[in-house]
Amino acid sequence: MKNLFFIVLICFFVACGGSKKAIQNTTPGEHTTAEEKINSPKIIVPVEEKAPDTAIEKVEPEEEEEEEEEVEEAAQQQKETTTIKEDPKVNIVKAFNHQPWNDLLQKHVSANGIVNYIGFKQDHLALKSYLAALRKNIPTKSWSKSDTLAYWMNVYNAFTIKLILDNYPLKSIKDIKNPWDLRFFKLGNKWYTLNDVEHRILRKMGNPRIHFGINCASISCPRLLNKAFTAQNVDRELEKLTIDFINDTKQNTITSNSVQLSKIFTWFAKDFKTEGSLIHFLNKYSKITINTNAKKSFKKYNWSLNE
Fold it and tell me: Which string of DSSP letters, residue by residue, matches the chain?
C-alpha cells in the first residue's frame, strides 16, 4: 500500500513537469483562446520612417550662412558704388561729365601742350568711350551757356586727337587731305566737320577767346590745355589761355611800337574787332602796352605736329 502511494506521487510530479515544459515551448499567442485573439488589441511596432530623397537638403547650414553673407556683402558693395557715382564731386559738370576726357588729357598732354599720341593710341578704348558719350549727349536748350561752350570746345579738341590717331604716324595735320572739311564724326543724328564746330558753332557764340582754347595739333597753335573744359572752369581757363598765348614770345613778339603776331590774328581778325581795333583787344591781355599806331606784321605758321 505504501509502495503504491509513492508510485502515484512520482507519476503526478512527472505529469506536472511535462505540462510546464509544453507551456514554455509554445510560441507567443499560441496559448490564447480564439476569443482572446479577437478581443486583444493589435500591437504596432513603430518603424523608423525615411524622408524621401527629394526632401534631403544638400546645402549644409554653415554653407547657407556663408551664401547669405556673400549676398549681403555684394548688396553693400553695389550701394557704395552707387553712392560714389551719385557724388557731386565725381560729376564735375551738371549737364555733362567730361571727367574721362580730363583724365586722358592729364595723362597724355604736358603742361606746355606737347601731346603723347602714342599714349592716346594705347588708351584708345577710353577715348572711344568718351567720344561715344559726346555723340549721345548733344547740348539742349536746357543747358547753360557755359555747359554748351565747354561741350563744343572739348568736341573740337577730342575729335582733332581722333583725326590725328586715325592717320598716325604723320608729321603734320596738313598731311591729311582737307582735314578740317572731313565729315568724319557724328553727334546726335548729324555728321560734322571740324570747320562746322569752329565756324558755325563756336565763333557764333561771340567769344573770340575760343581761338586760344581749340587746338589744331600744330606747333604754332595755342597749346592744348591738359584738362577738360567744364561749365565751372571754361571762362577762367579761356582767360588764362588768351593771356598766355598773347604774351608767349614764341607766338608773338610785342613792343610798344611794333607787333609780330600769330596768323590767327589775321585769319580771324573780325572776331577780335567786336569792341574796337585789334590793338585794343591785344592791350586787354598784353603785359606790354601797345601804341594804337604800332606797326603790325604776322609770323610764319609752323604746322609741324605738336608732339
Answer: -HHHHHHHHHHHHHHHHHHHHHHHTSPTTTTS-HHHHHHSPPPPPP-PPPPPGGG---S-HHHHHHHHHHHHHHHHHHHHHHHHHH-TTT---SS---HHHHHHHHHHB-TT--B-HHHHHHTHHHHHHHHHHHHH----TTS-HHHHHHHHHHHHHHHHHHHHHHH-S-SBGGGSSSGGG---EEETTEEE-HHHHIIIIIGGGT-GGGGGTS--SBTTSPPPPSS---TTTHHHHHHHHHHHHHT-TTT-EE-SSEEEE-THHHHTGGGGGTTS-HHHHHHTT-SSPPPTT-EEEEPPP--BB--
Q: Is 148 inside any structural domain? A: yes
Tally the domains of the chain: 1
pLDDT in tens, 135-179: 999 999 999 999 999 999 999 999 999 999 999 999 999 999 999
305 occurs within a structural domain: no
Please report whether residue 221 resides in a domain. Answer: yes
pLDDT digit string, tens, across residues 53-86: 333 333 343 444 443 443 334 333 333 322 223 3
pTM of the model: 0.71
Range of the domain at 111: 99-248
